[in-house]
Amino acid sequence: MSLKAFHIVLISLSSVLSLLFGGWSAHAWRVSGDGVYLALAIVSFLLAAGLAIYIVWFAKKVRPLAALSVIPLTWLTASGPAEACTVCYGQAEGPMIDAARLGVYLLFALVLSIQAAFVLFFFHLHKRAKLHRQAEESSP
């Protein structure tokens, strides 16, 4: 698999993950009424929309038709959100549920920080390539 195709698959999966997390957050907001869940849902849906716009832009830049065929395939194979029942946790509320929520928040923060690091790295590479091109053009 080429690096471009891997990038398209990775961003598509990130978009699906963001949509699923947004759906979970919206459901948790409807159940609990906590505003934090609503904020997480809004941020997740905005992130998914931004990733979808980016992947379409990237796919046009790379290969118009071949790259765009990966996006629907990835979204079709995504499963619905998994929600554990109260039997799995023993009770509807308690320290185990709170720990599971904290784990989800920490993993989400980890994924976002890694994606931010990738974005910063690609900006760094773009800046270095631009400087290199300018140096080549100015040298005789």
Short overview:
Helix content is 85%, strand content 0%.
Notable traits:
mainly alpha; 6 helices; 85% helix; 140 residues
> Sheet bearing the most strands, described?
none
Structural class: mainly alpha
In whole angstroms, the N-to-C terminal distance is 39 Å
According to DSSP, the number of beta strands is 0
Estimate percent helicity: over 70%
Give the SSE order as H and E letters.
Answer: HHHHHH
Give the CA-based shape. elongated
> Using only CA atoms, what is the Rg?
20 Å
Low-confidence stretches: none
- What is the domain tally? 2
Write the layout of secondary structure elements.
Elements: H1 3-32, H2 35-62, H3 64-68, H4 70-77, H5 86-89, H6 95-138
Structure overview:
The chain is an all-alpha fold. It folds into 2 domains: about 1-80; about 85-140. Helices cover about 85% and strands about 0% of the residues. It has 6 helices and no strands. The protein has helices at about 5-30, 35-60, 65-70, 70-75, 85-90, 95-140. Helix 1 runs antiparallel to helix 2 (about 35-60) and helix 1 runs parallel beside helix 4. The longest helix is centred in the last third of the chain and has 44 residues, at about 95-140. It is elongated and about 75 Å long. The two termini are about 40 Å apart. The model has no long low-confidence stretch (mean pLDDT about 80).
